[in-house]
């Protein structure tokens, strides 16, 4: 069999002013043709899982492109149009195809559009026609729309947050696509949107309402007529009509069963709606608790400044409080500040510099902080993820500097990336286990790799564009009424 394969992924925070143009995709990942296969083979990603199954099952893959950028503002219209044209041109030139594999996100909002994936899938379907099955992997945070459901044959959402099952979902999508192409299953799908906009920090799947929903989904999936079930928590910081939680069920030809199970999941999600609300400690209290802890390391999570949710990654309120409190044996990982990195590079390793760091994107989320410290290390910012997330994939932080301010180490990076892997400390010479406090700018993903080594985890309610306090944002386009913006 011959399957077309491509990735176009972006999580768009519509409240962000940071651009998501070609330069941002080039900084993260923009590959064409066979380079896609070489870069992702054997990695813990959806593409890695797709490639593994295809090669094991003798499927010929026709690669198009892989495009991904760090979450930020709307995707530039010109880049979205260019990338879509390239995918469609590659599809038209691919010859006979038995199926299409697409790794998408589900929360991409281009300029002038609300539903980047739905528009892309509409165009893909028009190109390949109604008979060619299209299987799609979607992020756990996908804001699923009617167009996504209509134009894809199968949608497969991650079942974990932190997302440690991406390669499993890629393998599942490929196996099910093989089943459809061979005529072994006839997908019947049902989809339900719930009037819920769950805050990010309330979406953890290890416990809480999402764990209960996926336990229920696992039980329902024991029915041999069920092909797959996905519960999408949604991405609340994309202010579009269809943002929010949804349930998607696929059965083998049994439409009535698919509808029944989707209804049951939607009802359960609504019943658990208040459990999604989330509170964290004010910054002074969070820092005080971290300093008072009797073990190490304490992970101090800056959940509102998560670049993986579209925040800038340069807010300063936690850093300011740590400096005020005289914290030592502490690392802040990582602060996005290209100007500060350039100044450290110019000064050189061992030099003492006085700099204003952070607070350069939106000073309302914390003004720059002036610090004097020693340039401890410099790096090109390249490392390899050790997992569980993105295992085997190269990480790129751009030119990177560690500024040591009286044993409070600030990792300064040039390319935005959330702190989800201890390798982001180790590759610049910092041993996470030796630190008393580690600040991670991440909402949930850090837990996959940092929780096993943490003495304690403390979440801080600092300012930032990935805050789980949705009352801080002015929503204009999401469908209303919707909980918790409205009491229903």
Your description of this structure?
The protein has 488 residues and is of the alpha/beta class. The chain folds into two domains: 2-276, Rossmann fold, CATH 3.40.50.2300; 283-467, no CATH class. Helix content is 29%, strand content 23%. The protein is built from 14 helices and 19 strands. The chain has helices spanning 22-28, 35-40, 46-56, 77-93, 116-128, 146-151, 166-181, 209-220, 255-271, 283-292, 317-325, 338-347, 423-426, 446-450; strands at 2-9, 29-32, 60-68, 99-104, 134-138, 154-157, 187-193, 226-232, 246-252, 298-302, 330-336, 352-357, 369-379, 382-384, 394-396, 400-405, 408-413, 437-440, 456-460. The strands form four sheets. It has an eight-stranded mixed sheet. A six-stranded mixed sheet has the order 2-3-1-4-5-6, sandwiched between helices. The protein has a three-stranded antiparallel sheet with strand order 7-9-8. β5, α6 (146-151) and β6 form a beta-alpha-beta unit. α3 crosses α7 (166-181). It is globular and about 65 Å long. 56% of the residues are buried.
